């Protein structure tokens, strides 16, 4: 018997919009939902309408003065010099009308997914509108106003007394979530991302392991630029399995940025759709192995909204619902309908062609470097296991 699953979505989530030319474009949600519906994989009975997070819930993570600043900014009442102190009105995070309301809905969508899973109404829940992992306690950052994952984790602790494993596979380091729980031994964060040497936010080194009681519960695996599928999956598979076995969570929360793909315009990795098949598959296994199936998934980055994000994010839901109708051709109606609006040629198949790009000249060197990084990242776990076996 398949697990009951909830898909959190409303077109109001598209109101989180900085401008028509900003790379963060929630129109990708509509493309993904339509792909799933055209694939006969999502029906209205499975869709849960997101609620808005309350100020009290936002305050679990965010400073009240910052929440007030966001409200004023969205109403056009925050002076420019004050806004900049809060990371608002920048090139990355411009101010837009009703910013607080739109951002609160994104957070509330993730809390809706949490309640669905933790009350037993669903075993798995997906909220692709969430995953804004850069937001800090008192500052917007990297397209993120409020940090829905951080609020959700604190909510899971306060309301359900849960130990949470947070797994972030966005190409950008999940810094906001890491810092929010850096000293907390009941939250374990694992981020697999492109090295910060070339990419925002510049954090996520292997030596960022937590502090105080939280030391040893923060894991980072920064992979080298131009990393390809095989090496990326090797890092992901080993890290998530070993970290989960070490931490033994009550619930798993995965952030599913789709910006490690070769086509993504903001990153420098060389993955294909192969990794987006495996990411949710292994997370699904981990959830059942340690958490009684409790799995909450959110979206994240992903800036090729036509060719990459709809396919990658649809695969999460197809894995959750154990739907194998995700091979071969994409639904013809979906391709034909959206090709009229797309500025580029849409893919016609679920998978990428084998020769998507020219061979990477440094492949062997990159793979070896990633293996060494993985060994450093997991050293505390592996060293402890060796000590116990002696």
UniProtKB/TrEMBL annotation:
Cited Pfam families: Hist_deacetyl
Keywords: Acetoin catabolism
Sequence similarity: Belongs to the histone deacetylase family.
Coiled coil stretches, renumbered: none
Pathway the protein takes part in: Ketone degradation; acetoin degradation
CDD domains per UniProt: HDAC_AcuC_like (cd09994)
Domain of life: Bacteria
Keyword NADP: no
Stretches assigned to the Histone deacetylase domain: 22-317
Name used for this protein in its record: Acetoin utilization protein AcuC
């Amino acid at each position: 018997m398949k697990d009951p699953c909830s898909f959190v979505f409303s077109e109001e989530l598209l109101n989180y919009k900085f401008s028509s030319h900003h790379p963060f474009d929630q129109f990708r949600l509509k493309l993904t939902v339509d792909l799933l519906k055209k694939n006969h994989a999502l029906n209205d009975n499975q869709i849960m309408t997101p609620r808005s997070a309350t100020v009290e819930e936002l305050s679990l993570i965010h400073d009240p003065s910052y929440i007030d600043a966001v409200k004023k900014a969205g109403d056009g009442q925050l002076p420019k010099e004050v806004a900049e102190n809060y990371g608002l009105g920048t090139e990355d995070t411009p101010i837009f009308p009703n910013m607080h309301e739109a951002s609160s809905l994104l957070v509330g969508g993730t809390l809706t997914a949490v309640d669905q899973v933790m009350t037993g109404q669903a075993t798995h829940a997906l909220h692709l509108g969430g995953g804004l992992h850069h937001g800090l306690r008192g500052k917007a950052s990297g397209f993120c106003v409020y940090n829905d994952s951080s609020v959700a984790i604190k909510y899971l602790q306060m309301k359900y007394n849960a130990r949470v494993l947070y797994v972030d596979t966005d190409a950008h380091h999940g810094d906001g979530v890491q810092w929010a729980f850096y000293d907390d031994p009941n939250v374990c964060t694992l981020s697999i991302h492109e090295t910060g040497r070339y990419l925002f936010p510049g954090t996520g080194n292997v030596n960022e392991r937590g502090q105080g009681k939280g030391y040893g519960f923060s894991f980072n695996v920064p992979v080298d630029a131009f990393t390809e599928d095989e090496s990326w999956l090797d890092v992901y598979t080993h890290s998530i399995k070993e970290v989960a076995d070490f931490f033994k969570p009550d619930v798993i929360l995965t952030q599913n940025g789709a910006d490690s793909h070769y086509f993504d315009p903001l990153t420098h990795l060389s993955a294909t759709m192969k990794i987006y098949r495996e990411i949710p598959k292994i997370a699904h296994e981990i959830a059942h192995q340690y958490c009684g199936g409790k799995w909450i998934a959110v979206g994240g980055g992903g800036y090729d909204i036509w060719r990459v994000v709809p396919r990658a994010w649809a695969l999460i839901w197809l894995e959750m619902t154990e739907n194998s109708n995700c091979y071969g051709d994409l639904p013809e109606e979906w391709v034909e309908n959206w090709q009229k609006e797309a500025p580029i040629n849409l893919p016609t198949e679920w998978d990428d062609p084998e020769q998507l790009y020219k061979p990477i000249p440094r492949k062997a060197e990159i793979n070896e470097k990633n293996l060494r990084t993985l060994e450093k990242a997991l050293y505390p776990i592996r060293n402890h296991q060796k000590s116990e076996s002696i």
